[in-house]
Amino acid sequence: MQKFKNVDELVSQLKPVEPVYCIRKKSIQVAAKTFQNKFPGEILYAVKTNPHPEVLKTILESGINNFDVASIKEIQDINKINPKAKCSFMHTVKSRENIKEAYFKYNIKTFSLDTKDELIKIIDSTNHAKDLELFVRVSVSNEHAEIDLSKKFGALNSEAIGLLRLTKQYAKKIGLSFHVGSQCMHPISYTKGIDEIGYIIKKTKIVPDYINIGGGFPTIYPDLVPQSLNNYFEEIKKSLKNLNLKKLPKIICEPGRAIVAESGSTIVRVNLRKKQKLYINDGTYGTLFDAGVPNIVYPSRLITNGRIVSKKLTSFDFYGPTCDSMDYMKGPFILPNNIKENDYIELGQLGAYGLTFRTQFNGFYSDKIFEVEDEPIMSMYGKEAYKAFLVA
Fold it and tell me: How many angstroms separate the CA atoms of 142 and 148, rounded?
């Protein structure tokens, strides 16, 4: 992978006609080390967030050797890089064929479920294996999340109590898990989730081997500025202590966005300006999906290449290159007022889901990916974390 000192150098040398995606390995390393140093348990990286081989290699090199996977393809992606890494099949709905292949071909022992029917599928497809680690996923409030996952996954408390009792009969090790939703904006959500787990433990008198608090850890966007991640970690520690268990189960989390969001950015070029609307060469069918449907506002900056830039800033919205009117990003994206055709814009925080959501709709697709060594436009970790990482 070709490497540049910074985005400006990349644009100056390549003058790309198509969108260009940038990976910052140092950003991944800083985030991974922060979680390992401050979270009170084991880290499983959520592969769905960004499965690019260079990203996965960097995560492994940073000390994270466990992965939350949702498909055979994701298992294969990890297996190619490190066959010894542990994969946990945490998607609660799987085909019998995928369960069988995961267990017998890839030696996957850990599965998640939220129904009796899924439990039966796992038992049947593994030929009643005696070495399974089974997680019962509980539905919890997603009220502070930007993207709600509670409607699709998780057993209600009343269901989870019986399901835990039943699952324990077939598991070598048993776990309880929940997910507070994607981009969770308040740490109190983890307290509520852990309280739900505590209620189930009290009712069943089953202390699980694992408590998996899922993902949902946030990153920073111009219009979504969460509390410090330290506040999340401290809230989780306090809530676990309040369970008042003689021996605390092994604690697991599944961060994705918070690990890789800052590591990726996309460089786009302006094809046309219509007043405050910019027509750019990437969009919702490319790396910018989240800017369309959930209307996440990415941090943006004009790459000046030495030209004079207006001090007056203006709010712009974007249209992508396809002929579909849904290829639209409301923003607002704050950029210099004199931006024009052929100018380049860097859009940050695209390490999460930017690469995974790309399509070839209308024939617009770019797989031009480079490494850059500069810092992201915005960061949850700050310059001090980067300095500490470099010293270490």
Answer: 6
Other C-beta atoms lying within 10 Å of the C-beta of residue 278: 24
Task: Tell me if 315 sits within 8 A of 331, measured CB to CB.
Answer: yes
C-alpha 19 chain-centroid distance? 22
Rg, Å, the chain Cα set: 22
Q: Tens digits of per-residue pLDDT, 13-37? A: 999 999 999 999 999 999 999 999 9
DSSP 279-330: EES--TTTTTHHHHSS-----EEEE-TT----S-EEEEEEE-SSS-TT-EEE
Alpha carbon distance 152, 164 (integer Å): 19
DSSP element (H, E) containing 370: strand 369-372
Q: Is 121 helix (H, G, I), strand (E, B) or coil?
A: helix
Paired strand residues for 135: 112, 175
Tokens matching residue 94 = 């799987």
How many angstroms separate the CA atoms of 87 and 45, rounded?
10
- Output the pTM of the full model: 0.94
Cα dihedral across residues 312, 313, 314, 318: positive or negative = positive
DSSP 362: G
Contact 269, 10 (CB under 8 A): no
Q: Is the pLDDT of residue 213 over 90?
A: yes
Beta bridge pairs of residue 99? none
Tell me the longest C-alpha to C-alpha distance in the chain: 70
Give yes or no for a contact between 390 and 360, defined as CB atoms under 8 angstroms apart.
Answer: no
Contacts of 337 (CB under 8 A, 6+ apart): 310, 312, 313, 314
Q: With contact defined as beta carbons under 8 Å apart, do 381 and 230 qualify? A: no
Helix (H, G, I), strand (E, B) or coil at 244: coil
The residues facing 340 across adjacent strands are none
Evaluate the omega torsion of the peptide bond into residue 332 and state whether it is cis, within 30 degrees of 0: yes
Helices (H), 155-228: 157-168, 188-204
Q: Cβ distance 194 to 213 under 8 Å? A: yes
Question: Given CA atoms 266, 267, 270, 276 in this order, what sign does their dihedral have?
Answer: positive
For residue 318, what are its two tokens?
């974007």
User: pLDDT (tens digit, 9 = 90+) per residue, 222-268?
Assistant: 999 999 999 999 999 999 999 999 999 999 999 999 999 999 999 99
- DSSP structure class, residue 110: E
